[in-house]
Amino acid sequence: IDIRRIESRQYSSINELSSDLKLMFDNALLYNEPGSMIYRDALNLQRLFIEKKRNLTRDDSVQNLVCELLTCLFIQTFNYEDQDGQYISDSFSELPEQAENEPFDIVYTFDMIRQNLDQRRYRRLDAFQTDLFKVFERARKLTLPHSKVYQDSIKLEKIYIRLRDEICQHGSLLRSPALLFNEDRLQHELVRERTEKDSLAKTNNQNSISPTKSSDSDENKVYVS
Asked: Would residue 220 count as lying in a domain?
């Protein structure tokens, strides 16, 4: 993108400027690691441009509005900072790119969600939310309950729910069955996940116990072929 072109006002339309800015954002996201400052700054600039463009133009396309809302929701969730100014999503970088015991057929990551948003694969809030929740659930399935990643996944999921309700204006701006999933539902899901995790751990422990030694009578038996 040519900054001098912007300064000299050589763009004939907001869409023309949008194309150049999108290319700049795409390059920053493609060539920098997820979680890096350049990556996060590119996402923030993308969100700010979407919001500014929405204020300057009138787009009657419901689908465009949904895609923009989902993108802004993702960016605000991914770039959410705690009271110490730390990005909560940073701890997810400790997760392996591919685990031996992957809980899902697909490895769900924040960057995968971001790419799907860029390619406009999400047309509904509930589809986007399902994939994002699998990012959080994957983090919990691959870590222990007392770990920072596990706790941060819960914290960030609660933050997402709050941001989602605010951006969708509690259903006034965007209605979706996804809005029915609240913190109470999350608590029920966490109980279910922990029950499954405990059951799996118990099964693995039983399988790891070596077989008991045969009795003397068994050892003295003669087996005839």
From this structure: no
